[in-house]
Amino acid sequence: MSNPETKEQLVSNTADAITSAIQSSRDNAVEAVISIVESYKKLQLPAIPKDAYDLGARDSIDTLLIHLNKFAQGLKQGRTE
């Protein structure tokens, strides 16, 4: 006969592994989005804005990156608390 504690521990370990995998996938997805936005900024916008449109686009992307990074930090902090 198997020990009930062993089954409970197995279930707990499995749940922990699933939770960890989900958190890792979520973190990787957020990092991928941030990387894509940063790459877009580097590839599509001139280093020195030529006009108000370029400046506005750069400011919008910078603001988006700030919020994405805050979101990523919040996810990590929520996991450690």
Fold and architecture overview:
The two termini are 39 Å apart. The protein has 81 residues and is mainly alpha-helical. The longest helix has 41 residues, at 4-44. It is built from two helices and no strands. The protein has one domain (4-80).
Number of domains: 1
> Percent helix among the residues?
over 70%
Q: Indicate the overall shape.
A: rod-shaped
Mean pLDDT: 88
Query: How far do the termini sit from each other?
Result: 39 Å
> Which regions contain 5 or more consecutive residues with pLDDT less than 50?
none
Task: Give a concise summary.
It is built from two helices and no strands.
Keyword list:
single chain, 81 residues, mainly alpha, 2 helices
Secondary-structure map:
Blueprint: H1 4-44, H2 52-80
